[in-house]
Amino acid sequence: MERTFIAIKPDGVQRKLIGEIIRRFEAKGFTLVGLKMMSVPRELAEKHYEVHQEKAFFPGLVKFITSGPLVAMVWEGDGVVSSARKIIGATNPLTAEPGTIRGDFGVSVGRNLIHGSDAIETAAKEISLWFTPEELVNWDSAMAGWLY
Ligand code: ABT
Ligand code: MG
């Protein structure tokens, strides 16, 4: 079954949006298989965003991601990688559609509340970067019979 890495960034935690965000993924029908709240070490933030290493916004981005607690999650379900990106909305919350998490709750591209893996291969890389295999739980969602 497909899996994706989702992180509620420090601004989402500060804004008390953890429950709201988890609710949206649960309500959609996806299954939570990994969850931890953590302070992000600098090296982990740099590795996570290494594709942006050369960008002018990189130092600010790393500073922001390491600025406070973050909630790291792995969600499972058919098509979860691209569907999660739709639930999250466009990178810039000002242009993200209403009904998406960023569209409903954000205003700033540098404070866009939540991260979701952008492709299946990226998801696999990010899941192994943020979680050990023992931290992930294999379970059948009780509602699975109603969803698939
Ligand atoms: P992430 O889910 O955080 O990866 O965001 P998304 O994939 O939607 O967008 P990308 B392009 O990966 O942005 C990574 C982070 O960099 C921030 N950013 C991006 C800026 O601050 N300025 C910019 O001009 C761009 C393009 C937004 C993303 N995270 N935050 N916070
Ligand atoms: Mg990205």
Protein architecture, described:
This protein has 148 residues and is of the alpha+beta class. The protein contains 8 helices and 4 strands. 41% of the residues lie in helices and 16% in strands. It is globular and about 45 Å long. 3'-azido-3'-deoxy-thymidine-5'-alpha borano triphosphate binds at residues 9, 52, 57, 61, 64, 91, 109-110, 112, 115-116, 118.
Q: How far is the N terminus from the C terminus?
A: 12 Å
Query: Which segments are poorly predicted (pLDDT under 50) over 5 or more consecutive residues?
Result: none
Number of strands: 4
Determine the mean pLDDT: 96
- Compressed to H and E, one letter per element, the order equals EHHEHHEHHEHH
- Our Rg estimate from Cα atoms comes to 15 Å
Major sheet details:
4 strands, antiparallel
Query: Count of helical segments?
Result: 8
The best one-word shape is: globular
Relative helix content: 40-55%
Strand content: 15-25%
Query: Largest beta sheet: what is the strand line-up?
Result: 2-3-1-4
Bound molecules: 3'-azido-3'-deoxy-thymidine-5'-alpha borano triphosphate, magnesium ion
Structural category: alpha+beta
